[in-house]
Amino acid sequence: MTTLDRALETVMQLSLDQQELLIEILRQRHLEASRDEIAKDAKESLAAFKAGKLKPQSAEAVIAELRRSLNDVLHRKN
Hints:
mainly alpha; elongated; 0% strand
């Protein structure tokens, strides 16, 4: 039995109220972790920009590159 299976089995032994509380706690922790990761990425990007590793670009150029990347990803899935 995997660790995840054991965790789910344990959670199923909780009351519904406890399960709902656990879900809310997990959502909040996930949100905090996501925010921390975004902040870390932003700091790294800013440091790279200040170090001259990145060049300034117009919003239009960035959007066009994002669209190209998205199209590449979508076409690889098909």
